[in-house]
Amino acid sequence: QVxxxxxxxxxxxxxxSLRLSCAASGRTLNGYAVGWFRQTPGKERxxxxxxxxxxxxxxxxxxxxxxxxxxxxxxxxxxxxxMNSLKPEDTAVYYCRVGxxxxxxxxxxxxx
Length: 112
What we know:
By secondary structure, the protein is mainly beta. It is built from no helices and 11 strands. It starts with a strand and ends with a strand. The model has no long low-confidence stretch (mean pLDDT 96).
């Protein structure tokens, strides 16, 4: 079972940037696809971005396409989510996922 720890969240003004990290332990991420999701109170967890295992192809939700970039560093066993041009509606707890394993989440708050 892989353990995932997200970090890098915080408070930022609209238009600012943050980089989230998803660090894995217990198993290498090499060979596994990784996804980022987010959730706000009272709403279902929603897909944000995904990166494949072999060729690092990426997929984004329409709401973040062109602003967010997912990447991976297999040597560091870490996946990143670079978030630029942040909007108040990006405020949420962000989670990474590998298979059925989820991290504990990191809070991102964007002020207007």
